[in-house]
Amino acid sequence: MNLLEMHCKAMNLPAPVLEYKFHPKRRWKIDAAWPGFRLAVEIEGGLYGRGRHVSIKGYKGDLDKYNALALMGWRLLRFLPEQVKSGLAVRTIEEYFIERRKE
């Protein structure tokens, strides 16, 4: 169980599906997803070193993935690892679920 998953459990939020493959043709995965709610969460690691996300090719690939998510009707929330650790991520996810209950 990862930290985001533990935070969701502690807040009595629905459990995410980790490493969710959302696209029917591409091998793209989302770090955490709630398919029934069309909510995707990406934890943007690798920004401080030589990670894939900071290369031009990696950044472009992320844009392609995020745009595909949007075109498929998903909402995407993006966080840094320290935002997960601080609890900001789970509070934002909780806000999403609170807003969905109002609809």
Description of the structure:
By secondary structure, the protein is an alpha+beta fold. The protein has one domain: Endonuclease, Chain A. Helix content is 44%, strand content 20%. It contains four helices and four strands. The protein has helices spanning 3-10, 56-71, 81-86, 88-102; strands spanning 17-21, 29-34, 39-43, 75-79. The protein has a four-stranded mixed beta sheet with strand order 1-2-3-4, with helices on both faces. A hairpin with a 4-residue loop joins β2 and β3. The longest helix is centred in the middle third of the chain and has 16 residues, at 56-71. It is globular and about 35 Å long. The model has no long low-confidence stretch (mean pLDDT 91).
Label this structure with key terms:
103 residues; alpha+beta; Endonuclease, Chain A; four-stranded mixed beta sheet; 20% strand; globular
Q: Could you give the order of strands across the largest sheet?
A: 1-2-3-4
Shape: globular
Count of runs of 4 or more consecutive helical residues? 4
What is the element string, with H for helices and E for strands? Answer: HEEEHEHH
In total, how many domains does the architecture comprise? 1
CATH fold topology:
Endonuclease, Chain A
Helix content: 40-55%
Largest sheet, in brief, is: 4 strands, mixed
Q: Gap between N and C termini, in Å?
A: 31 Å
Task: Give the tally of β-strands.
Answer: 4
CA radius of gyration: 14 Å
Write down the oligomeric state: single chain
- CATH class category: Alpha Beta
| Low-pLDDT segments | none
Which structural category fits the helices and strands? alpha+beta
